[in-house]
Write a structure and sequence with these properties.
Helix content: 55-70%
Order of helices and strands: HEHHHHEHH
Structural class: mainly alpha
Shape: rod-shaped
Number of strands: 2
Strand content: under 5%
Distance between the termini: 46 Å
Radius of gyration: 28 Å
Strand order of the largest sheet: 1-2
Largest sheet: 2 strands, parallel
Number of domains: 1
């Protein structure tokens, strides 16, 4: 049995390099690309503003409920049982309404998700179309995204086509670390340096 497993492992070790031989790879950093697109920053600002407004509305409702609950606790011992039940039901209904509103705004598929989809989807579609166009023109077999939690440990800078994507979209690449430069800087040595050198 061990011999069969060794034989299979040996065949796999010989076959995998042959399967990937001749394939072309590239990588992009979508976080870097999106940070250089002013429309994306504006959309993010708009989302943050809307989120803050909804959050303030919810905080106000929950503060009101908390105030009503404290008042009820102080008066509860003086109230007849039927009135006490009625006030508890009113409090529970208000709290339920506030939780439903919270879910409507911030829950999965809620208003914030819909707004994000509405504002971000067109920008992301343009970026992915540019990536696809570069991949087709340069005949890349795979384009990997090295941003976020990608498991990419090393990328030779010559395979990073993020700046080409920005240029194709009409933006000049720049330093991913700087804020407010609207993608106007031309040199970006930080992005060209392999990850192992950082």
């Amino acid at each position: 049995m061990k011999q069969i497993i060794r034989h299979i492992a040996f065949v796999v070790m010989l076959t995998v390099p042959l399967l990937t031989w001749g394939q072309k790879y590239a990588c992009v950093n979508t976080e870097y690309i999106l940070s250089k697109i002013p429309d994306y920053s504006a959309a993010q600002t708009q989302l943050n503003k809307q989120s803050e407004e909804w959050q303030k509305e919810l905080e106000s409702k929950f503060q009101e409920i908390d105030k009503l609950y404290k008042t009820f606790q102080q008066e509860a011992y003086l109230l007849p049982e039927n009135l006490k039940r009625k006030r508890e039901e009113e409090l529970n209904a208000k709290e339920r309404e506030a939780r439903e509103l919270q879910t409507r705004y911030f829950g999965p598929g809620g208003e914030l998700d819909k707004k994000r989809e509405e504002l971000m989807r067109p920008i992301q579609d343009r970026v992915y179309s540019a990536i696809e166009r570069i991949a087709n023109e340069k005949r890349y077999d795979f384009v990997l995204d090295k941003s976020g939690s990608a498991t990419l440990l090393y990328v030779n800078a010559k395979y990073d086509v993020s700046d080409q994507v920005l240029e194709l979209l009409g933006y000049k690449p720049g330093n991913a670390k700087s804020d407010g430069d609207d993608g106007k800087k031309v040199d970006n040595p930080e992005m060209r340096r392999p990850r192992g050198d950082r």
